[in-house]
Design a protein that fits this description.
The protein is mostly beta strands and 116 residues long. The chain has helices at residues 10-16, 78-81, and strands at residues 2-9, 25-32, 38-40, 50-63, 69-71, 107-114. The protein is built from two helices and six strands.
Length: 116
Amino acid sequence: MRRLEVEVGGWEHGCCGPELVRFTRVEWTVTVAPDGRLVETHHDLEDLDVTTVTGTIVDLEALSAGGSRARIARVPSGSALGGMDGADPGEVVELHTDRPVDVSGNRFIVTVDVAD
């Protein structure tokens, strides 16, 4: 088993991204950013060099505009983050403390356990 960090967020998650919680299995299409980051993507795939990441979510972090990270309980769906889900207020809270986390940049780091 190895762990990969995948960036999720921005307009793509805001558009149609699902809620993300620990110990959920995912299969994502990712691209490698110029700086080496893995970034989840699901739009305009024919124009990108992509690969698939399949595994289990083991950690979730909110990424601030300044680059700092805060471990969070879950990543709400894009519609909840945008205030368009009547059943989910889209709150992002720090893991173990339930303190609100500023996610104005709408970027998250998801750590995924993948099989070797």
